[in-house]
């Protein structure tokens, strides 16, 4: 029965379990039953009951035990590839890091990126779905695939409105998300930032060694129709860097988000001394918090 639970489909498995338990009853009916045999029979029936319950739950998917898990893993891997930052031309360095609450493979924060075919434009969106960990994992998987399809397929000013309309059509009870969207010209370094209720992006000005906060306005995605999202423009010059992150990195129940951003900028000053290679991993390790999902995107113009 245990082997059948891994190999047989949900339609065949219940009949196999019932037939096996029936054969067990017939086999012991002719023998003398003592306490030891009664214990063994009870254990077999308990195992069979557990397998039947799991089979009925699995029948909604229609595949055998390990296949369903492998399908889910494959789906996660395929969609997570959209968070891989495409190869950038010389003079640019980027890094994206995502961590989930509790260390699971599913998180409510994700990053999607797209580069134009002529290598002149880069678009990146950092999104925080309501909820955290496995609770937001399914919605995050769906939205990362949808937002990845919208990114680069629409003009930059239409991405957040289209994402907002998509969320409204889902009609989820917890169907809201925050996002920050970057559209960058890789030739000149000119960029546009738009935000939907998300923590602001921050820029390091290499000339002065100071950090600047790019405050943008826009409602949370999935709450209101015909939303307007303001645009902040800027330029990344040689040596400059840009950080985009979710609130799980800078906000805790004991710390306000503004104080968290100040702490992030304080840690970010080390990037000038230690270099930007693996800088996002170092920053997220310094600000590690296991109570919420975290995502951080680092972009540096060398």
TrEMBL record:
InterPro entries named in the record: Bact_Sigma-Reg (IPR052016), PPM-type-like_dom_sf (IPR036457), PPM-type_phosphatase-like_dom (IPR001932)
TM annotation in the entry: 12-29, 38-56
Keyword Hydrolase: yes
Keywords annotated in UniProt: Hydrolase, Membrane, Transmembrane, Transmembrane helix
Matching Pfam families: SpoIIE (PF07228)
Domain of life: Bacteria
Keyword DNA damage: no
Domain PPM-type phosphatase: 88-302
Protein name in the entry: Serine/threonine-protein phosphatase
Originating species: Nocardioides jiangsuensis
